[in-house]
Design a protein that fits this description.
This protein has 14 helices and 16 strands. With 455 residues, the protein is α/β, with parallel strands linked by helices. It folds into two domains: 5-59 and 377-430, Urease, subunit C, domain 1 (Roll); 61-371, TIM Barrel (Alpha-Beta Barrel). The strands form three sheets. Strands 1, 2, 3, 4, 5, 14, 15 and 16 form an eight-stranded mixed beta sheet that branches. The chain is globular. It starts with a strand and ends with a helix. Pfam families: Amidohydro_1 (PF01979).
């Protein structure tokens, strides 16, 4: 078990987006949990004491949508959305995805998680839907291996695609699975890795990729399995596919998913930028959550997701970085800033005001915890998981900003790695290093696999 760590004399502790900031206070962790927050806390015998003067402590960020494997296709000019139509882009990128090996999935996961941790993310949900046949059946297993290496709290969304391209999907045959095969592997992963206990570091969600690329039965069986096993459901929805689903089934995506039972407090969707007001109301009524991925909107979104309308109607909201096919970084901290600024840009003509900057911090913390079905992460309180990050604000970057820690990240932005990131009571990033790991070695290993596979 991790020993006690006392953060002494923090300039500010932000317990949550809605709670009062604590000034010149201490925070004590013991094992995986926060033991106490207050002034002049005593350090237990053997505890490490960290001078946190000038530091702002925040709850660890919770990333609710990503595609780690896409980290290996970043910054490639031939995949530039500004140069290709959607169909041209899909026809270019899926053959690249189909070439990935098991080692690619492992090292791309290490790469994405490392960047997330550097920028304050402590829990990550990855929607892994790419399963080339030659890569074998242990892709998600290798992701759990990567998470253990870095100390990341990891939720694996076991995705999949079952509808052939000949029947209207965008998926090459070498990446297709059968519904039975997909469901069987979901069950295997749940039985092998899913831990529903408090402070769990490993969970599994049933996450068929998207309605447009799967048979109806795939979603129906996903609902059956998830409810039987007591796990979360996730998929892409409301990202331009509704006219296709309506042509196939006579229903737009949200109604289609609700008809199948793929909705409710144990479900959340990624994107949702094309939703109507009535569809937003349906999400609120069913308790279905949304992972808003703001940065892909700049590149590929036809519309800016109406977060003010969703917030006004009480939809559960969280933030996702999304994969490198539409966002070339894995920095959820940056998504808080870009998400707020994007909504300000789109505010004209909308019925609801942009939520306050602090709310965007809430989407990336408490909102993420809610979408993942967790009540032990997302806030800094005694008894909660010791997941946090620290920013030393004694820099010129923060002059004039320190009076409002709640709004700092959304309004000003944080343009550098954290000074410290802690997950489950363990410091996993400190002073520009991953304790116990050689970042240059991790870089070299990943670069070797990337170059040997894709270049």
């Amino acid at each position: 078990m991790t020993g006690a760590i006392l953060f002494r004399n923090c300039a500010a502790i932000v317990p949550s987006s809605g709670a009062a900031v604590l000034r010149d206070a201490d925070l004590l962790t013991q094992g995986p949990a926060i033991a106490a927050i207050g002034k002049n806390l005593a350090a237990p015998d053997g505890a490490r004491v960290i001078d946190a003067s000038g530091w702002f402590l925040y709850p660890g960020l919770v990333n609710t949508h990503h595609h780690f494997f896409q980290t290996f296709v970043r910054n490639r000019v031939e995949l530039d959305w500004t140069r290709l139509s959607l169909i041209e882009w899909l026809d270019t990128i899926y053959p690249i995805f189909a070439r990935l090996t098991e080692d690619c999935f492992y090292h791309s996961s290490v790469t994405a998680m490392a960047e997330l941790i550097k920028h304050g993310c402590t829990t990550a949900f990855d929607h892994q839907y790419c399963f080339p046949r030659h890569a074998g059946g242990r892709i998600v297993d290798r992701q759990f291996e990567a998470a253990e290496l870095l100390g990341m709290r990891f939720h694996a969304g076991r995705g999949g695609n079952t509808l052939p391209k000949s029947e209207g999907s965008t998926i090459p045959d070498e990446m297709l699975e059968t519904t039975d095969g997909f469901i069987a592997d979901c069950a295997r992963l749940i039985d092998t890795y899913h831990d529903a206990g408090r402070f769990s570091m490993r969970q599994v969600a049933v996450a068929p990729c998207q309605p447009v690329n799967c048979y109806r039965e795939t979603f129906a069986e996903s609902v059956r399995l998830a409810r039987d096993k007591g796990v979360i459901l996730h998929t892409h929805a409301g990202e331009g596919e509704s006219p296709v689903i309506e042509a196939r089934f006579g229903l737009r995506s949200i109604d289609y998913l609700e008809q199948l039972g793929f909705a409710g407090p144990d479900s959340f969707y990624a994107h949702c930028w094309e939703l109507t007001r009535s569809e937003i109301a349906s999400l609120a009524a069913s308790g279905t959550g949304v992972s808003h991925c703001p940065e892909p909107v700049y590149l590929v979104g036809a519309e800016v997701t109406d977060i003010p309308a969703m917030a006004a109607q009480g939809v559960r909201l969280s933030l996702g970085a999304d994969g490198a096919a539409s966002n070339d970084n894995s920095n959820l901290m940056h998504c808080i800033h870009s998400g707020y600024m994007l909504q300000c840009l789109a505010a004209s003509g909308r019925d609801n005001p942009v939520p306050l900057p602090a709310e965007f911090l809430g989407y990336a913390t408490q909102g993420g915890a809610s979408c993942l079905g967790r009540d032990d992460i997302g806030r800094l309180e005694p008894g909660m998981a010791a997941d946090l990050f620290a920013i030393d604000t004694r820099r010129m970057d923060y002059i004039g900003t320190r009076h409002d820690p709640h709004s700092l990240i959304a309004k000003v932005g944080v343009g550098m790695p954290t000074d410290l990131t802690m997950i489950n009571g363990r410091i996993v990033w400190e002073n520009g290093e991953f304790p116990g790991l050689d970042e240059r070695k991790l870089f070299a290993e990943a670069e070797t696999v990337l170059n040997s596979t894709l270049f």
